[in-house]
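Deliverable D4.2, example record:
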Amino acid sequence: MFKNWYVDKDIFMALSTKIFVLIVILLTTIAAFYPSIGHDYAYFIPRLGDTFLHYRLNGFSIQWYTPSFAGGLPAYPNPQHMQFSLPQLFTMLTTPWAASLLSIAVYCLVGYFSTFYFLKNILRFHWRASMLGALFFTGNGFYFQHMAVGHLGFQVFPLLSLILVLVFDRSLSKTKASSILALIGALLIYSAGFYPIAIFFLSFGITLPVLYLIDPSIFDWKRVGAITAGGLSLGLLLSASKISAVLSFMRYFPREITDKYLVDLGQAFTGLLLQLLGVMNLLPIFWLTGNNARDLSDFMRLSTGGYYGLWELDISISPVLIVIIFVGIVEAFILIRKKKFPRLSKKQWGAIAVLLFAIWVCIEFIFAKGILFQLLSNLPIVGSLHVNVRYAAAFIFPLILLGSVILNKWAQEWSEKRFLWISDLLSLLTIVFLLLYFFVADEQSRAFDMTTQADFYTRVRQGETFPIQRVQKMKDSEGLVDGVSGLETFDPIFGYYWENFNHELEEGDVKNKSDGYYNLTNPAGLVFPEQNQLYLFERISVDDEKNLIAFIQHFRPDWQRPLYQRVFDIVSIFTCLILIGALGFMEFIRFRKRT
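Output generated by the structure prediction step:
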């Protein structure tokens, strides 16, 4: 599919060895205390298992609602529901936990090789500089921390570099590039990747002018515009069903939360710098001064004004990359003093202006302050994204580009032998610094016990169906094997303290009747109340016994969806089939021509 992708055996072995070691470190840190795993897996793992049960009973169909959590909730309309995602696909083969680890490994591989391809084949950097850039991108604290704590929607973050390949690789036809870009965009949405999408937009705003300053010749503006427009348009058609369902649900539960960081501007910039330094740079310093990982967590909270766990505040880039950038900046200042630094054209000055503007927009989002942030945060869904310190991840790829430029310059100036052993040393150090994440595991809230969920999945594979029999005040992740729908939901869409979870249920049998209702929420009333003549959190009527029986047995109830939703469902299905068919046909024609 990609021209000049194949590399010689030695290069491939060097690439593969390093990413293999990195993935082993990442997955080992994530599973360090198994069966106790990151607390947010308590949301995703049970729902992956629940959807697996849905597939076993209903075939490959949309799981609109589930009785398994909080007395009956929307499933597919929830923005965090991952029904059509890579980990959900892998649950067909293995447990939700193993499926999650496997999908993380796949995304790491894609991000690593895409970054290498972009740097080597599109920017034409030395292959060792490209390899180090790929290693820096995949081995960042932002990804390690969020995967450890269970923010499974962030697993798609490495796809950022693949998007750049699709936009700039001229060996791909515009049709093929747009089609793949659309599939990736849809995958982000169906994989609960709303935060990564926001980070991508901020990062691209910084990355594109940086790329123009590095090599303006890679910009074919008509091609870039056509691929971007085509990919976005087709991606929206692919995602129309999900977006429509999510907006229908979130009109009642917008989850609008505004971050407020009570620090002055100077401290905010210091906090941002410390985020980028993070665990890999600061923890060794804390050890040398007699402190520990807990002290680092407290320090990061005080410095940023963001009173979150370390997993939210750490956007650490490799100390190796920081040293490279520092040395490169010193070299640039020396050239400027000697008046050997090349003059910039008007277009390059324009790119710098765009870059500064993009950086400022990103900073406004990180600090949750400023005119532009206030305007953009009122957009649908954007206003629901908080924990703004996460947006600092937008700087990761641009900084890696800067470091790769410097490495490539050294590769041209030094002998091949010298650059070989130095790049090997830098690669080794990069991997060694990642081992520091074993020492912050206690700061990552490994509070979810996987034992019950593993048992649930095994028994579903053996044919058990676990009909819901009772509702009970317990964590919604703990009752599945006993046929209990726990009322203490982990779903943040209802508020972290359940302030918007106004159910009418009582502990007891779901078939208990009172006031003409069964003891189970009709979740259709939370998404499409008008079409079903319901109000929010209305229970299932005694006149709707047929749907109650189907629902508690995990079959699809016959509740109504509006015409617009049914149309969007069809549009998304047909767009998906057409795109996959078109890509398959293009590959078949290419194969025929080659043979």
